[in-house]
Specification:
Layout lengths: L1 H16 L5 H12 L34 H9 L23 E8 L2 E7 L5 E4 L4 E2 L4 E6 L3 E9 L4 E9 L4
Antiparallel strand pairs: 1-2, 2-3, 4-5, 5-6, 6-7
Length: 171
Protein backbone atom coordinates (compact mmCIF):
# COMPACT_ATOMS: atom_id res chain seq x y z
CA UNK A 1 0.00 0.00 0.00
CA UNK A 2 2.94 2.29 0.71
CA UNK A 3 4.26 1.71 -2.81
CA UNK A 4 1.18 3.46 -4.27
CA UNK A 5 1.95 6.74 -2.49
CA UNK A 6 5.64 6.98 -3.44
CA UNK A 7 5.01 8.14 -7.05
CA UNK A 8 2.77 10.88 -5.70
CA UNK A 9 5.13 12.10 -2.94
CA UNK A 10 8.39 12.26 -4.97
CA UNK A 11 7.18 14.96 -7.46
CA UNK A 12 5.95 17.10 -4.55
CA UNK A 13 9.34 16.93 -2.82
CA UNK A 14 11.17 17.80 -6.03
CA UNK A 15 8.87 20.73 -6.67
CA UNK A 16 9.86 22.19 -3.29
CA UNK A 17 13.54 22.15 -4.29
CA UNK A 18 12.99 23.94 -7.58
CA UNK A 19 12.91 27.48 -6.21
CA UNK A 20 13.71 30.10 -8.85
CA UNK A 21 15.08 32.60 -6.31
CA UNK A 22 18.86 32.60 -6.75
CA UNK A 23 19.44 36.18 -5.70
CA UNK A 24 21.52 35.16 -2.64
CA UNK A 25 23.85 33.09 -4.75
CA UNK A 26 24.14 35.83 -7.37
CA UNK A 27 24.95 38.43 -4.66
CA UNK A 28 27.74 36.22 -3.26
CA UNK A 29 29.28 35.69 -6.73
CA UNK A 30 29.21 39.45 -7.41
CA UNK A 31 30.83 40.18 -4.00
CA UNK A 32 33.67 37.69 -4.68
CA UNK A 33 34.28 39.14 -8.14
CA UNK A 34 34.44 42.69 -6.74
CA UNK A 35 37.27 41.86 -4.31
CA UNK A 36 40.68 43.22 -5.31
CA UNK A 37 42.97 40.63 -6.85
CA UNK A 38 45.77 39.44 -4.62
CA UNK A 39 49.25 39.21 -6.04
CA UNK A 40 51.27 36.05 -6.40
CA UNK A 41 54.31 35.80 -4.14
CA UNK A 42 57.59 35.93 -6.05
CA UNK A 43 59.68 32.79 -6.38
CA UNK A 44 62.25 32.62 -3.57
CA UNK A 45 65.77 33.44 -4.58
CA UNK A 46 68.03 30.41 -4.96
CA UNK A 47 71.10 30.73 -2.77
CA UNK A 48 74.39 29.75 -4.30
CA UNK A 49 76.08 26.80 -2.53
CA UNK A 50 79.82 26.88 -2.16
CA UNK A 51 81.30 23.70 -3.60
CA UNK A 52 83.89 21.49 -1.91
CA UNK A 53 86.81 20.00 -3.74
CA UNK A 54 88.22 16.85 -2.12
CA UNK A 55 91.98 16.94 -1.99
CA UNK A 56 93.05 13.43 -0.96
CA UNK A 57 96.78 14.06 -0.36
CA UNK A 58 97.58 11.17 1.99
CA UNK A 59 93.97 10.39 3.00
CA UNK A 60 92.19 7.28 1.82
CA UNK A 61 89.62 7.45 -0.98
CA UNK A 62 86.16 7.32 0.66
CA UNK A 63 84.64 5.62 -2.40
CA UNK A 64 86.86 2.56 -2.53
CA UNK A 65 86.76 -0.39 -0.17
CA UNK A 66 89.99 -0.94 1.65
CA UNK A 67 90.99 -3.80 3.91
CA UNK A 68 91.11 -2.71 7.54
CA UNK A 69 93.02 -4.37 10.33
CA UNK A 70 89.67 -4.86 12.09
CA UNK A 71 88.32 -6.84 9.14
CA UNK A 72 91.38 -9.08 9.16
CA UNK A 73 91.04 -9.61 12.93
CA UNK A 74 87.35 -10.33 12.51
CA UNK A 75 88.10 -12.97 9.92
CA UNK A 76 90.61 -14.59 12.25
CA UNK A 77 88.06 -14.55 15.09
CA UNK A 78 85.55 -16.52 13.01
CA UNK A 79 86.27 -19.97 14.35
CA UNK A 80 83.28 -21.64 12.73
CA UNK A 81 81.05 -21.29 15.79
CA UNK A 82 77.46 -20.86 14.68
CA UNK A 83 74.07 -21.12 16.38
CA UNK A 84 72.18 -24.31 15.62
CA UNK A 85 69.29 -23.31 13.34
CA UNK A 86 67.50 -26.62 14.03
CA UNK A 87 67.58 -26.26 17.82
CA UNK A 88 64.21 -25.55 19.38
CA UNK A 89 64.23 -22.15 21.11
CA UNK A 90 63.60 -22.07 24.85
CA UNK A 91 61.18 -19.63 26.45
CA UNK A 92 63.84 -17.46 28.11
CA UNK A 93 65.48 -16.79 24.73
CA UNK A 94 62.75 -14.30 23.91
CA UNK A 95 64.00 -11.95 26.68
CA UNK A 96 67.11 -9.79 26.57
CA UNK A 97 69.63 -10.46 29.35
CA UNK A 98 69.12 -7.06 30.97
CA UNK A 99 65.44 -7.85 31.62
CA UNK A 100 66.20 -11.14 33.41
CA UNK A 101 67.02 -11.25 37.14
CA UNK A 102 68.51 -14.07 39.18
CA UNK A 103 66.46 -14.43 42.36
CA UNK A 104 68.01 -17.52 43.95
CA UNK A 105 69.06 -21.15 43.60
CA UNK A 106 67.70 -24.60 44.35
CA UNK A 107 69.88 -27.57 45.31
CA UNK A 108 69.11 -31.27 45.52
CA UNK A 109 72.00 -33.66 46.14
CA UNK A 110 74.55 -32.81 43.43
CA UNK A 111 72.20 -30.76 41.23
CA UNK A 112 71.91 -26.95 41.39
CA UNK A 113 69.37 -24.85 39.51
CA UNK A 114 69.19 -21.11 39.16
CA UNK A 115 65.93 -19.21 39.58
CA UNK A 116 65.43 -16.50 36.97
CA UNK A 117 62.65 -13.91 37.11
CA UNK A 118 61.37 -12.35 33.87
CA UNK A 119 60.04 -8.83 33.44
CA UNK A 120 56.45 -10.10 33.72
CA UNK A 121 57.17 -11.64 37.15
CA UNK A 122 57.36 -15.32 36.15
CA UNK A 123 60.12 -17.35 37.81
CA UNK A 124 61.88 -20.04 35.74
CA UNK A 125 64.26 -22.80 36.86
CA UNK A 126 67.44 -23.09 34.75
CA UNK A 127 70.47 -25.38 34.77
CA UNK A 128 73.72 -25.64 32.83
CA UNK A 129 72.91 -26.44 29.22
CA UNK A 130 69.74 -24.30 29.14
CA UNK A 131 69.62 -21.26 26.88
CA UNK A 132 68.57 -17.73 27.74
CA UNK A 133 68.90 -14.27 26.21
CA UNK A 134 68.55 -13.22 22.61
CA UNK A 135 72.13 -14.10 21.55
CA UNK A 136 71.93 -17.90 21.89
CA UNK A 137 73.29 -17.71 25.44
CA UNK A 138 74.05 -21.21 26.76
CA UNK A 139 74.36 -21.55 30.54
CA UNK A 140 77.73 -22.99 31.54
CA UNK A 141 77.59 -22.74 35.33
CA UNK A 142 75.13 -21.91 38.12
CA UNK A 143 76.67 -20.73 41.38
CA UNK A 144 75.04 -19.32 44.51
CA UNK A 145 75.51 -15.71 43.40
CA UNK A 146 75.43 -15.78 39.57
CA UNK A 147 74.53 -17.65 36.41
CA UNK A 148 77.35 -17.77 33.86
CA UNK A 149 76.71 -18.22 30.16
CA UNK A 150 78.38 -17.97 26.78
CA UNK A 151 76.62 -15.93 24.11
CA UNK A 152 77.17 -16.07 20.35
CA UNK A 153 77.46 -12.45 19.24
CA UNK A 154 77.21 -11.88 15.48
CA UNK A 155 80.13 -10.15 13.77
CA UNK A 156 80.48 -9.19 10.15
CA UNK A 157 81.95 -12.52 9.15
CA UNK A 158 80.60 -14.99 11.69
CA UNK A 159 79.99 -15.31 15.41
CA UNK A 160 82.11 -14.53 18.44
CA UNK A 161 81.75 -16.35 21.77
CA UNK A 162 81.33 -13.86 24.60
CA UNK A 163 81.07 -14.61 28.31
CA UNK A 164 78.17 -13.04 30.21
CA UNK A 165 76.57 -13.48 33.62
CA UNK A 166 73.40 -12.70 35.52
CA UNK A 167 74.18 -11.83 39.13
CA UNK A 168 71.91 -12.45 42.09
CA UNK A 169 69.85 -9.27 42.28
CA UNK A 170 68.61 -7.33 45.30
CA UNK A 171 64.83 -6.95 45.24
Amino acid sequence: MMKKFIPLVVPLLLAGCASQDMSGLQDYVNEVKSRPASGIEPIPEVKQVVGFVYMPKNRRDPFTRQEDDAAVTETILDNGVRPDPNRRKEELESYSLDTLRMVGTLEQEEDRWGLVKTSDGTIHRVAPGNYLGQNDGRITRVSEDKIELIELVPTGSGFLEKEAAIALGDE
